[in-house]
């Protein structure tokens, strides 16, 4: 059994406490089993990226809520050091999500570097209405399926889309695909 990141466990506990939710209600809200939620909170299990997206979507919070200790609450010029390691490198060895700029409550955005290994498919549940994603590919060819329509995004290309529908990121190639994902949350 994999150990959860302390940030993930703490964030989940805090969100449940702030909203006065039981594990059963949280399971209904997120679509993640009560048992899995309990294991995550106790630090006994690490969620996959897909599971963590479900939790973030269910709570209607930024994905990076679970990755960062503190959130920037001001808008001053600030340098964010690039972190070579991600909270998920040990969880999903073939998909790495690295926060580049933490969630900013004024701008309501997250910026991630995502690396998909060869043959990897990551399905994302619909986000809250109004969430917009911007995908910029830096290496390889990303197949992005949005509501059953496929887009091939190559190195140097980008795509913006409404993320309130089912969407999937897929690497059909033999080399890793690396892209940035800028997510804008309406609330």
Automatic annotation (TrEMBL):
- What keywords would UniProt list here? DNA-binding, Transcription, Transcription regulation
List the Gene3D superfamilies: Jelly Rolls, lambda repressor-like DNA-binding domains
Question: What are the HTH cro/C1-type domain coordinates in residue numbering?
Answer: 12-66
PROSITE patterns assigned: HTH_CROC1 (PS50943)
Recorded hits in InterPro entries, A to Z, give:
Cro/C1-type_HTH, Cupin_2, Lambda_DNA-bd_dom_sf, RmlC-like_jellyroll, RmlC_Cupin_sf, TransReg_Diox_bact_type
Write down the SUPFAM superfamilies for this protein, in alphabetical order. lambda repressor-like DNA-binding domains, RmlC-like cupins
Protein known as: XRE family transcriptional regulator
**Where does the chain cross the membrane?**
none
Q: Which CDD domains match?
A: cupin_XRE_C, HTH_XRE
Keyword Transcription set for record: yes
A Pfam family matched in the record: Cupin_2
- Coiled coil ranges: none
């Amino acid at each position: 059994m994999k150990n959860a990141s302390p940030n993930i466990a703490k964030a989940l506990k805090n969100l449940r406490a702030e909203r006065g939710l039981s594990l059963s209600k949280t399971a209904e809200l997120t679509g993640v089993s009560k048992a899995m939620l309990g294991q995550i909170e106790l630090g006994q299990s690490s969620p996959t990226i897909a599971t963590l997206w479900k939790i973030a979507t269910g709570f209607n919070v930024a994905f990076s809520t679970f990755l960062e200790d503190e959130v920037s609450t001001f808008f001053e010029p600030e340098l964010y050091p690039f972190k070579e390691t991600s909270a998920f490198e040990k969880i999903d060895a073939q998909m790495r999500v690295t926060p580049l700029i933490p969630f900013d409550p004024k701008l309501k955005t997250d910026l991630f570097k995502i690396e998909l290994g060869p043959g990897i498919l990551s399905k994302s549940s619909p986000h809250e209405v109004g969430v917009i994603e911007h995908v910029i590919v830096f290496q390889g060819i990303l197949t992005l399926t949005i509501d059953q329509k496929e887009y091939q995004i190559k190195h140097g290309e980008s795509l913006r889309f409404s993320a309130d529908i089912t969407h999937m990121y897929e690497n059909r190639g033999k080399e890793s695909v690396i892209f940035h994902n800028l997510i804008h949350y309406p609330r």
